[in-house]
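For this section, I looked closely at a protein sequence along with its fold in token form, which I now present.
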Amino acid sequence: MDFVAAKKDFSQALSKVQSIPESKNLSSVMANLLLESVDDSTVKLTAQSYDVTMVVSFPAQVLTPGKLALSARMLTESVKMAPEAPISVKAQPNYWADFSAGRLEYSIPGILPDNMPQAQTPNPKFEVTLPSSLLTEIAERVGFAMSQDEGRPNLNGISLRASNEDGKVKFEAVATDSHRLAKLVRMVELEQGLEDQVKSILHRKGISELKRFLDDSDEEVVLGFERSSVVIKSSSGYLLVRQVELEYPDYNRVIPNQFKWQYKVERAAFIEAVRQAQVVISADKTPLVRINLSSGKLVVSARDPDRGNAVVEIDVDYDGEPLEVSYNNRYLLDALTSLTGREVLVSVRDQDAASILSNPEDGGLLQLIMPVRP
């Protein structure tokens, strides 16, 4: 195989797949990327892991068709170091490749392409066409709350459900680690509704890849569901994400619907207050901030016996009974920054129950965090 590509096109394709190949065991075949000629002007790039497969194409002048399986780390670094000049990649008899751009030359290690595992070909039982912005929003507004605990595999991803409702399709995405929960509901008009409700859990290792796959894309994409995976197709390729084949817990039971305290506060001011207060929190201490609510005033404070105290006061739209509650400040910041809108509505049932943070003008997005006893 022998081809020439513009650095911009090559680099853009690599940036989408670079975190998928094996990075610890470099002797694994999964530490390589597969390059294949599609026609005389297109090269296909495939990256695989146990949880994710991504295939993207980029324009290139293919001089000799064929396949190459090259070290993902070395290929990525070589393209990154290349000057702004056409990049030439040429296969060698030992399965390595000669890489050149301007006056720069590298020899990139490779393996026999046929030793690479066969990439799964998407064969979804059901597909819908969606704006890519919806999937990006799911990843950004919900993904941060996924559990990192491998001992709770059913929480290691985003629960995605789709159903017909009021002539539209309702998409509901939820993630939780049992200390916090993020939920996004969006109604989408589709030319054809769903035959039946769709439920899946997208593995968390595919969510970050989803954002890279859709980076800078404003086109429509096709979302497909298979028995063990979910596939997202675009004009440049596809992303296959493994489903977690377990039941997701009934999260609606933990979302309160009656509240003793509710107040609105400017979201940017709240974020800044939490960031200012957390300065005194040591890295080895529980990141805890205390919220004191009273008429017209919200006080955010933090204390550390070795680093001192911090107190930040902001104005709040509230005239009711006082409230004192503490939160993990990282969880509070994640919830606030993942919301939209100028104001945030904070709803509290009682001091031991989960608090809900939402945008008063967007009923489809909420963040739930558990209080912490100081």
Q: What stands out?
A: The mean pLDDT is 91.
